[in-house]
């Protein structure tokens, strides 16, 4: 008998003794339209489940399992789940859990292998499919607000990266995102939308869909970077890779529902072109939108980097691109901001500091304002503001300070409005004079 065969034999012998699994903890993550219940297990769960009506219940049977968590101490703050309790199992040695629900819900149950700070888990997603989808707020009106979707990375079960002193990325991203949103909502002509408002998990698709429904004009995903060694530091800004963008165009084209949503705005043009069934033309329209949004994303990314450089070290000075699941809507420019490295002890401290979080938020909002000043979406307050900006053609003998004096505005505001790097202006140059 070889050594490995012997090991296998030993393993088989001891198998029955270690078979009993234990539920060590039960965690509940409510979000506005779903609730996730996580059972922390000592090993991978062997389970089955069924639902019961009047009242609505979900029953989960865990084979060869013990329960070491006191279910009376669970903190349940969910619109869908009333109670988690134990019931008599069908078989001795099993655990039967009953989840008392507030309405009929189709559960999604799956197990997860150990990852990060967690061991084996059994995840029960209770999703309220009847939640009314918020209708797009972006509509007519000549000077509507621009809508900026702020996406706090990770959340709930997914802590993101973890710093050397144990700080979670998901907490940093949420507080920075909330600060950005609060600042945006103080600006005239802007409105923020948070994809995630609390500590719960949310898949990437749900994030972009929520932003789509909110009528976003811009999508900013907030993250903190990590590396295997503590050295790397600094912020960076990311865009979708061209390859992934092309893949996403293909996916939208294949998905009738999403295709018609994306084409909603151009449907008339397609009809006018007498090509409502022209698949090639439809594909081209989606592709054009994606490309346009990606181009615009590049401008936003550049503005964000040029603001961030004043308040933090930059890890990358130019916008970077990579295949990113969360940046995939063709409807608006999307960027991902890595606010710094949580794996770097100094930056971990900085990123969890409210003062630095405020500075990050201010810089990002400043960049967003500059971007919309230059590229206002039609029908927005920003578009109206840009139209009403006075234009001045530089005459012989005029200096920047003279122009500023004549219009009673500051030199720096003219420089910002025209993206001037120096005080030099030339005869015949057309300047926008901000008001
Ligand atoms: Zn992240």
Automatic annotation (TrEMBL):
<keyword id="KW-0961">Cell wall biogenesis/degradation</keyword>
<feature type="domain" description="LysM">
    <location>
        <begin position="390"/>
        <end position="433"/>
    </location>
</feature>
<dbReference type="InterPro" id="IPR021731">
    <property type="entry name" value="AMIN_dom"/>
</dbReference>
<protein>
    <recommendedName>
        <fullName>N-acetylmuramoyl-L-alanine amidase</fullName>
        <ecNumber>3.5.1.28</ecNumber>
    </recommendedName>
</protein>
<dbReference type="InterPro" id="IPR036779">
    <property type="entry name" value="LysM_dom_sf"/>
</dbReference>
<dbReference type="GO" id="GO:0008745">
    <property type="term" value="F:N-acetylmuramoyl-L-alanine amidase activity"/>
</dbReference>
<dbReference type="Pfam" id="PF01476">
    <property type="entry name" value="LysM"/>
</dbReference>
<dbReference type="Pfam" id="PF11741">
    <property type="entry name" value="AMIN"/>
</dbReference>
<comment type="similarity">
    <text>Belongs to the N-acetylmuramoyl-L-alanine amidase 3 family.</text>
</comment>
<dbReference type="GO" id="GO:0009253">
    <property type="term" value="P:peptidoglycan catabolic process"/>
</dbReference>
<dbReference type="InterPro" id="IPR002508">
    <property type="entry name" value="MurNAc-LAA_cat"/>
</dbReference>
<dbReference type="InterPro" id="IPR018392">
    <property type="entry name" value="LysM"/>
</dbReference>
<dbReference type="Pfam" id="PF01520">
    <property type="entry name" value="Amidase_3"/>
</dbReference>
<keyword id="KW-0732">Signal</keyword>
<dbReference type="GO" id="GO:0030288">
    <property type="term" value="C:outer membrane-bounded periplasmic space"/>
</dbReference>
<dbReference type="GO" id="GO:0071555">
    <property type="term" value="P:cell wall organization"/>
</dbReference>
<dbReference type="InterPro" id="IPR050695">
    <property type="entry name" value="N-acetylmuramoyl_amidase_3"/>
</dbReference>
<feature type="signal peptide">
    <location>
        <begin position="1"/>
        <end position="19"/>
    </location>
</feature>
<keyword id="KW-0378">Hydrolase</keyword>
